[in-house]
Amino acid sequence: MNFKSNKLRDAVVVALVAGASVATAQAQEAETTGATNLDRIQVTGSRIRSVDVETSQPVFVMDRQAIEKQGLTSVADVLQRISANGAGLNTNFNNGGDGSSTISLRNLGSERTLVLVNGRRWVSNMSGSVDLNTIPAAIVERVEVLKDGASSVYGSDAIAGVVNLITRSDFDGAEANAYIGQYDKGDGQRTAFDATVGASSDRGNLVISLSRVEEDQVMAGDRAISREPYFGLGSAYYSSYSANGKINRAATAGGNLALRPGAVGSGLASDPYYALDQYVPYTSDFNYNYAKDNYLATPQKRSALFAQGSYNLTDNITFKMDALYNERRSAQQLAGFPLSTINTGLSLSGDSYYNPYNTAYGQDGRDVSWTHRLTEAPRLYDQNSKTSHVYLGLDGIFEFAGRQFNWDAGYAFNKTNEVETQVGDANLLTLESSLGPSEVRNGQVVCVDAPGGTVIDGCVPFNPLSPAGGVSQEMLDYILFTAHNTYQYRNESVTANLSGELFELPAGWLSFAAGFEHRKESGYSSPDAFIANGLTSGNAFAPTSGAYSLDDAYIELLVPVLKDLPGAQLLELSVATRYSDYSNFGNTTNSKFGFKWKPFDQLLVRGNWAEGFRAPSITNMYRGNTDTFVQYSDPCSSDGRFAGDAGVLANCYNRGVPAGFQAEYNSGSGATGGQTIYPFTLGGNTALQPETSTSKTLGLVYSPSWAEGLNISLDWWSIELENRISSFAANTILDRCYVDNVASYCDLVTRNADGLVTNVFIGPINAGYQEIEGYDLTVKYRLPETKVGTFAFTLDSSYVSKNRSRDSKSDAWEALNGKYFESDPYWRVRGNLTTDWTYGDFSASWMIRYRSGLTEDVSEGHIESVAYHDLQLSYNLPWNGTVRIGANNVFSKDPPVTLDAFANSFDPQYDIPGRYMYMQYTQRF
């Protein structure tokens, strides 16, 4: 495997020795059943306890064994593989990433997927999404994914579905795991260590787990597909922000100049300036390949401490608690800042020592418009995110009128604090001073207030016209600064639930669950003072702060209608409704109706209709104005998408765009456009109302008696989303203004006198509709044991038959199905096929992960389908240890190329290039 370190070897040797010395020790771990009372269990999607694990709603379950077979170190990576998932944030996001990872069921957005831990709402961020990296994989016993709306049971956010992570409990013994893996290129190493101990008595149980995960970066320059801005197009799309000094001049003045390679300096040998004869006309040969300097896979380190326990206070009352502390250190890296007069508004003074037009050199003393990419100092963004969670509660049982009732009440507290450190942006105040007058005094270049004037103490002159790598460390230390941005999100909730049986009907007992929840949500972001005041070369953003509270009450009924009759072995109806009262927008009521019918023992038919909603998040409502650099294509550009379209060009001209205008971009040109030179603005909207949805499912579960071990489930599903909270893309806003001639959109666009777009305000509004439907097929088949072992097959697949959206009821529907938008692939088919083989202490697992092809929205090219193959081999050792060796992407399949991707020429939802190999050792005591 050619591992760079011997960490795994050392860990395995220690574990083997320890294991051999306690070969007689046994690990006892009772099967976790979540919320269990007698033989009744509570399944995700309902708070009514039942002896039947199948409900009227489809639930996909993945146990700990299935998780371990995938050879991954994070819960997020596991969940993002399931077929019902769409495009969630992950650690392959560098520019635009923050170290967090999310899940987006049905590709409706991570903010529309509710994440629970042990059936309780987990802490989100200010956008309403849950960072799955706050939940260590070591504590997870199983995952239940409800693939249906559930606002009537859980409240806001459960539009696309619910992910419920059940932690390990009733664990008696000890377990330690050591893991190491890396790509076949010798990079991207991951190591993980965790230890879990548990003790039980007649009255209670306590489980404690410690874990540590380290994931190294992979550089974009170390993979062929990502080492250039656009794969296969070479230097054509390198940035015009050159690493060499560049003088910006109008075409009528002869065009831009660049410092020639091997330029000879004048003046001080230790700190030269470059005379005009050292400059040559600027060509694309001077453009800079910024892509190679970026991270392809971002690094992070996660440490966690988890404890969970229960204690029987009496025979009927149990105290329960669980607590978690998780710390994540993550980072992103971008190429050095592309500084210029254009994006800072600062020219190089005609009296600067470094200005070749200085009158001291016989020139006219003009100020110079300049460009220089700081290749000497990459931009670094580091996050230190700390998540704390505590739950304290009581649950119990009591009898009344000869019937048993279950109850629970508890308090939950969740908080995430994050400090982001940002290095590589310029301080505009010091930059202005450093670009001002300067001259040689006592053999050193110093800043002065005027030629021959007073020296400015502490100021270090900056040479933006230096050759590549020529900016000194002293210059960098003076013009750059370190920013510290702080973020916090917290929620507190008090809940109480009661469930039981009300009265007996001919087909069984009518059961119910009812409950109440009071919750407070709050959050803020506090940018560095320089950033908040727009005194940096990077994105500025204003502080965000907001809070709201809510009170929820719900009731759920399970009504048995028929039982043990021909054609109706079972017929049950379920109904639920939930009333929610929010402090920021008012109240809403959401209900559901479902049925479960067994015409005979081997077949279950089920269906569900549900209303749902998503409350606007704190970011949606209270976001401070934030700068963003986005990809866009100006419809008014004479070489753009609408070149030659007289109607569009007339609209542009009538709104002040000069005739013959040609757009400029940071990188890119023509019809495809590029990244904006000036930052656009993101903001909030306090008038937002909640999104609403209607979900429907209809399916069957078939377990034929003629094929023991075979289970088949097929479900049709449909979601209609209205009043969607949407922030339109810059292209949409520009097209609505100049193509559709809608004045309200033009109010969001600002241009300068030359016609260049200098700002677009992008804020959320309730103005969207989406309809999506499809089919889920799950097949599990465990064959009878044979002489060569036991084989089992699992297929988890999803097919989307319709996915379309529109901005208003007057607009035509836009088909999304099978299309690729930037960082947003709408696959028609996703599926995972797993083959498991067990023979004594040996086992093997082969997984095939499939994603269908796509059509690019902008380029209109085809993105090919992909099938990744993963393999794991394991062996149970005599001393209660297990060794696992595996490889993900066994055949080193490259991701499909798309030039519509934001970066790296492929979407971050795909595996990065290369075969990933790993080894894991588990020792149980």
Structure, described:
- Helix content is 8%, strand content 47%.
- The protein is built from twelve helices and 55 strands.
- The protein has a 22-stranded antiparallel barrel. A five-stranded mixed β-sheet has the order 4-7-8-5-6.
- β49 and β50 form a beta hairpin.
Comma- or semicolon-separated keywords:
925 residues, mainly beta, 22-stranded antiparallel beta barrel, five-stranded mixed β-sheet, 12 helices, 8% helix, disordered N terminus
Number of distinct beta strands: 55
Rounded to an integer, what's the Rg over CA atoms?
A: 31 Å
Biggest sheet record: 22 strands, antiparallel, barrel
- Could you tell me the mean pLDDT? 92
Kindly, what is the distance between the CA atoms of the first and last residues, rounded to a whole number of angstroms?
Answer: 29 Å
Shape: elongated
- Tally of DSSP helical segments: 12
Give the low-confidence spans.
1-39
Global structural class: mainly beta
How is the quaternary structure best described? single chain
Q: Helicity, in percent? A: under 10%
Strand content: over 45%
List the helices and strands and how they pair.
Blueprint: H1 7-21, E1 28-29, E2 36-37, E3 40-41, E4 59-63, H2 64-68, H3 75-79, E5 113-117, E6 120-121, E7 140-146, H4 151-154, E8 161-167, E9 171-183, E10 190-200, E11 204-215, E12 218-219, E13 246-248, E14 257-259, E15 266-267, E16 272-273, E17 279-281, E18 295-297, E19 300-312, E20 317-334, E21 338-340, H5 341-344, E22 369-373, E23 379-400, E24 403-426, H6 428-434, E25 438-441, E26 444-447, H7 473-479, E27 480-505, E28 508-526, H8 529-532, E29 544-565, E30 568-582, E31 586-600, E32 603-614, H9 618-622, E33 626-628, E34 631-632, H10 646-654, E35 668-669, E36 673-675, E37 680-682, E38 691-702, E39 710-722, E40 725-726, H11 730-738, H12 743-746, E41 749-751, E42 757-762, E43 765-766, E44 769-782, E45 790-806, E46 814-815, E47 819-821, E48 824-825, E49 829-839, E50 842-851, E51 854-856, E52 862-863, E53 866-876, E54 881-888, E55 916-924
Parallel strand pairs: 5-8, 37-42, 47-51
Antiparallel strand pairs: 1-9, 2-3, 4-7, 5-6, 7-8, 9-10, 9-55, 10-11, 11-19, 12-18, 13-14, 13-22, 14-17, 15-16, 19-20, 20-23, 21-22, 23-24, 24-27, 25-26, 27-28, 28-29, 29-30, 30-31, 31-32, 32-38, 33-37, 34-36, 35-36, 38-39, 39-44, 40-43, 41-42, 44-45, 45-46, 45-49, 47-48, 49-50, 50-53, 51-52, ...
